[in-house]
Design goal:
By secondary structure, the protein is an all-alpha fold. It contains 14 helices and 2 strands; from the N terminus they run ββαααααααααααααα.
């Protein structure tokens, strides 16, 4: 198969398929950033008189040293992947969704309330309806800042952050009131948690004696579906067009505010689904801290995956592994939890920073392609002229 001067494989007709150099650079940048962050973390460990090799070995053992550790990384990757998929959609429309935490809570609240209200339904019906309602609850929580941006030009960063605070306080109120576990009230413990959900709604286990559930399969299937949606449908094309150039999209007749609001709504839906999966797949009840920071970590996961749905799959597993491994490192070498948070923060900072370098690389590659085509045009002119002469003769 021929290739262009820029290093991209092309079909015989001239259509570019994959720019392997571009793919390699976009993979190498975040990986290099993570290694640099770990190197700085090693310096911090040395200052605490901890052997970095021992600490990082404990981190690796935490993920690959046992079946539980490996499956736990996949458990944490599931909500990260779902949130990350919503972030991919929002960023493609050039809107920023910082409201994942609140949207997870909205999905978890709806899941808990509905399941407890209709606990007599059979599992084959209760589970899909519960997941759908969790998605819709998160979508509603994303729809509000979406409409505010579309109609009133309210900054979506501010509105989504405020929606996080509203959702958190609403959940705290319910867990200390209407949704508090009656058994805890009877025993006088008054723990801020809901009643345990009926077993027929629990997601099945993929590996016995672990927390790995079928929500992982659902998340991977949805990642493929989001890819098809963004790159193989008219709506997805319009969303990406809005993100590439809102002015050009508006000139072409695309309703820019509508598709930006739609993107925030869909992002909220996927975060709400993450909350539903976390409740019926892992905790089996609503607890304080149900989000575990997935709403913010999902942004990093999406950026690490290049804001591509399929790239977010390995990125979510990698970040989930970091969470599990860091926890094991803290327990194994007795480092302060603040150092673990600092290490994860460094990884996030460095990986997100590579997004700017990746954009610069893409622009430079695009300029090189234009120059290559401009250089090829004069060389092709004599051949085209000779061909036209032969056809006339």
């Amino acid at each position: 198969m021929p290739s262009t001067a820029a290093g991209a494989a092309v079909r015989p007709g001239g259509r570019r398929l994959i720019d392997w150099q571009d793919v390699a650079v976009k993979i190498a940048l975040p990986v290099s950033a993570m290694l640099l962050a770990l190197l700085i973390g090693a310096v911090l460990l040395l200052l605490l008189k901890v052997n970095p090799l021992e600490a990082y070995a404990a981190m690796v053992r935490g993920v690959f040293g046992s079946t539980f550790g490996f499956t736990q990384s996949l458990v944490k990757a599931t909500p990260l992947l779902l949130v990350g998929l919503g972030i991919c959609i929002a960023f493609r429309a050039r809107v920023i969704n910082i409201g994942g935490e609140g949207q997870i809570i909205a999905g978890a609240l709806m899941t808990t309330w509905f399941t407890l209200q209709f606990r007599d339904w059979p599992g084959w019906l209760l589970t899909p309806v519960t997941l759908l309602l969790g998605f819709l609850a998160g979508a509603f929580w994303g729809f509000i800042p979406g409409v505010l941006k579309a109609r009133l030009q309210v900054n979506e960063i501010l509105s989504t952050v405020m929606m996080n605070a509203i959702a958190l306080q609403f959940m705290n109120f319910l867990l200390r009131g209407p949704l508090m576990d009656p058994e805890g009230v009877r025993l006088g413990t008054y723990l801020p948690q809901s009643e345990q959900l009926p077993q027929q709604v629990w997601l099945g286990r993929l590996v016995p004696q672990t927390l790995l559930h079928t929500g992982l399969i659902l998340a991977v299937v949805l990642a493929v579906a989001v890819y098809i949606f963004l790159w193989r449908t008219t709506i997805g094309y319009r969303i990406r067009a809005v993100g590439y150039n809102p002015d050009a999209a508006r000139y072409a007749g695309i309703n820019v505010p509508f598709y930006q609001a739609m993107s925030l709504t869909l992002a909220g839906g996927f975060a709400g689904l993450a909350g539903a999966v976390e409740v019926i797949g892992v905790q089996h009840r609503l607890l304080e801290g149900i989000t575990s920071g997935y709403g913010f970590s999902g942004i990093v996961t999406a950026l690490f995956g290049g804001l591509h749905p399929l790239g977010t799959i390995p990125a979510s597993w990698l970040f989930g592994s970091l969470l599990v491994g860091a926890d094991m490192m803290q327990r194994a070498v007795q480092v302060p939890s603040a150092l673990v948070d600092t290490l994860l923060g460094l990884i996030v900072l460095f990986v997100v920073s590579t997004n700017m370098l990746s954009r610069r690389w893409s622009r430079w590659r695009a300029a090189r392609r234009v120059q290559s085509k401009s250089a090829e045009a004069p060389a092709l002119a004599p051949a085209l002229s000779a061909s036209s002469t032969q056809e006339v003769n």
